[in-house]
Amino acid sequence: MPKGIRDKVAILGMGCAKFGERWDADADSLMVEAYEEAITDAGIDTSQIDAAFLSVAFDAINVGPSGIPLAMALRLNNVGVTKVENYCASGTDGLKGAVYAVASGAADIALALGVEKLKDTGYGGLPVRTRGTTFDMLGVVGSAPGNFAQLASAYRTRHGVSRDDLKRAMAHVSVKSHANGTKNPRAHLRNEITIDTVLNAPMIAEPLGLFDCCGVSDGAACAIVTTPEIARSLGKRDLVTVKAIQMATSNGWELQGSGWDGSYFHTTRIAAAKAYEEAGITNPREQINLMEVHDCFSITELVTMEDLHISKEGEGWKDVRNGFFDATGKIPCQIDGGLKCFGHPIGASGLRMVYENYLQLLGRAGERQVKTPPTFALSHNLGGMPNQNVCAIAIIGMEGA
Amino acid sequence: MNKQMDKGILAFGAYVPRLRLQRASVARAHAWFNPGLMGLGKGERAMANWDEDPITMAVEAARDCLGDFNRDQVTSIGLSSTSLPNSDRLNSGIVKEALNLSDATGAFDICGSLRAGTSALIQALAAAAGGQTNLCIASEKRRAQPGSEAELSNGDAAAAVLVGPGEPIARCLGSASISMDFVDHFRAAEKEFDYHWESRWIRDQGFNKIIPDAIRKALHDVGMPAGNIDHLLVPLTGKGIAEGIAKKTGIKVEAVRDPLGSSLGYAGAAHPLLMLADTLKKAKPGERILLVGFGQGCDVILLEVTQANEKLPPRLGVGGWLARRKPEENYIKYLAFNELIDIDRGMRAEADFKQPMTALFRNRKAVLGLVGGRCTKTGTVQFPKTDIGVNPNDRSVGSQEDYPLADRSARIMTYTADNLTYTPDPPAHYGMIEFDGGGRMMAEFVDADAEDIEVGKPVRMMFRIKNIDERRGFKKYFWKATPIK
Q1: A296 in catalytic set
Q2: pTM for the full model?
Q3: Comparing C-alpha atoms, which of A155, A148, A114 is closest to residue A14?
C-alpha cells in the first residue's frame, strides 16, 4: 500500500449550515451559510482558493448539473470546480478530492462543499429516481429503508439473534442519537425519545420503524484544506490534520457473486482496514476516541460497529445495548445526533461528520463537547445499499498525534 | 399405427392466479342498485394480481405444459385471447422471449372471438400432420363493467396444449366448425366493455341450437355414436347448459364435466383449453373427449386419450393451481388492480420509468428470459451476464455462456416488507435470493404473505409485470420470486 496522506493536509476552516426542513432557503443560500462560517474560520479570502469540489447526490431536483452552481453561489475566482456524485458518500469523496489536490501540490488551498436540497419534492423520504437503464429493467425500485432493512433479516440469521433483541438494540441506537441531538442547536431533530417510542412507531420497512430512520434534510457543510506549512504561515496553531481517507466501492460481488450473506458491509471492512493502516492505528477499539458513522438507519449503525472492527462480529448489538457508544460510553458515536438527528442532506453529510469531529478535536463543540478531547476521530460515510455501495472513511486528529 | 407418423396432443398445462375474489363481497357492494346480483354472489372467481395479465398467465400455463420437454422442438406458439394487452405488439412474441424459445420460432396471436382457443387448436392439430409442433396457449383477463353479471361470472386464467408429431397423450379423431354472426355480445375495438343481449335468446338460439348442430356434425363426420363420448366439455358456466346440450345430442349426462364456474369463473377463449387440461389430468386411456368452443358459431373437437397420458410427468394443471389459493374479500382491491377505480396512489407513483426500446432489445434474454451467464472457465454462475465475470479469482473477459435461471429453484437470503416505496399492492416484499447451483439477484416477492418469507425459504421464479408506463401505455415485464409452500 502506498504511504498515504497522513499529516500531509491540515483543515484550515470548516462550516456547516443549520440542517432541517429549510423551507426558507435555496441550495445557494445553504452553500453560502456553510461557506461563510468556513472562510471566517480559515481566515482567508475567497481569491486564495485554488480548487473546489462540489458534492451533491440528487442534483436533478436540486442544484442541477455541473460544478457551476458552487462557483456562482460563492462567486469563486473562476477556479476549477469538480462535481462529485457518489451516492450518500459524496461528501467524503469531495473532501478526498480537495485533500488530494493539496497533498499532490497541485493546489495550495482547496475547498470541499457538500449541499443537498431535498425538501422540494413534495413528499417524505428520498426522491424516487432512475438508477440507470439496465437497473431499471432488472433491479428492484425499493426505498432506502427497504434496502437497508434487509440487513436485519440476514444479521439475525447469521448470528442467531432474536427479532426482539435486535429490535431493542436498534432502538437503543436511535434513543442515544436523539439524546445527543438535543444538545446540538444545528440539528434537524432535537427531541428526546424512549425505547418504547421506537418500538411503537409506524413500520416503514420491516423491521425498520419511523424512528429507525434518519431525517431527510436540507443542508450544506464545507471544509477548506491546505498544507500544515501554509496553515502555520497563515497564523494557525493547534492544527487538525487528515490522518486517513479511504474509500471502497462494491464491484458487484455482493450483488452478483457468492459468499456474501447480506448481514454486513463488505466495503466498510475493506475501507476501515486501509484507513487504520494509513493513520497508523493498530487497535481501533482502544485508539479511536470518537466516531461519526453513517447511521442512515439504526441497523446500519449497528452492523457498522462490527465492520469498523470496533465490536466483535456478532456482538455489536451487545455493545450498543451496553452503552459502549453512548455519549458517556467508551467511544461516543454520533455525539452531534448523527444522520438520525442532525439530519441527512446527502451530499453534505460526509463533511458534516468531519465538521463535528473537527470541533470536538479543537474543544469547540459547546454543550455536547466530550470531556477529554479525542486523539483520533473517525467518520464513516456510506452510499448506496448493502448489496452495492460506496464506503468512505476519514480519520482526523491533532497534528503529531 | 406407425409411431414415426403419430401426432396429436403431447402435453397440457394450466395457470390460475392465486387470488380468488369472493363473489358475495362483489354482489353485496352492488345490491343497493341491483339486488338481482345477489343470486350470482356465490363461490369465488380467479382474480389476476395487479402484475398479471394474459401474457404473464400464458407464460405460466406454458411452463406448466412444457415441463422438461425439449423446447427446441417447439416450431411455433399461438396465443388465443380476447383480452391481450397490446393491439399492435406481438403478445405471443413476449411469451416466446419469456420461455426462452429459439428466435427461429413462429409466433402469432389469435383474437377476436371467444372461439379463438378452439380454432387455434384445430389449426395446430392440422399443422401437426405437416410436422409442426405448436404450443397452443389461451389466456384471458376479461374486463367487465362494475355491477355487470360478467364481473361476477368471469375468471382470469390460462391454459396451454402442446400439439405436434410424437407419441400423443390424446389423438384427434376429427373436428367441425360452424361460423355465423350470432351476436350474443360484442365489443368494438375502441370500447372498454362488452355489450350483452338477452340471455333467454342466447340460450334458445345459441347454446341449445348452434352447439348441438356442431356436435351432431362432428359426430357424423367421424362416424361416432353420441353414446361413446366419455367427457363432454362445454365451456359455459351457466347452470344446466351442458346437461341440456347432452340431452339434445344423446350424450350421457354423466359425461358432462365441471365447467369450473364456482371455483374459477368463466375465462373466455381460454375456457375450452382449461377444461381440456383439467380433463386430461384425470382421463383414462381410450376415453373420448368432445370439446366445444362457442362464439359467433361453434368449434367441436373430438379426441381420444392414449396410454401415453398415464406416463406424462406430473404437473400442476388446473387442480394444482386452484389449490394454490388465497381468498380476496376486498372488492375495492379488485377494482384498483383492474383500473376500474382511480385511487390516490401518492406522489411516488408519479415516477416516470420510460423504457428505452434499444436497451430492452439488447437485454431481452436477461430481462424477459431471465437468462444469466456461466463462465466457461470457472463455472461461476451470475445474473445478468457481463463482459467481465464476477468471480473475484478469475477476471475472465467474454468467457460467459447463456445460463437460463427461470426454472431453477432459489432461496431467500434477505428480505423486507416496504411500506414506503410505491407498489399497487403494498407493502412491497423483496429481498436477495440465491439460486441453487449459483447466481443471485435482488427480487420482488409475489403472491407472498409475510409468514411465507424467511431467510433460507425456497422460492420459484414467475414472469410478471414489473411496472407500467401509463403515460405511453407500455408494460415492462420481468421475473419475480414466489414462496413455495
Answers
A1: no
A2: 0.96
A3: A114
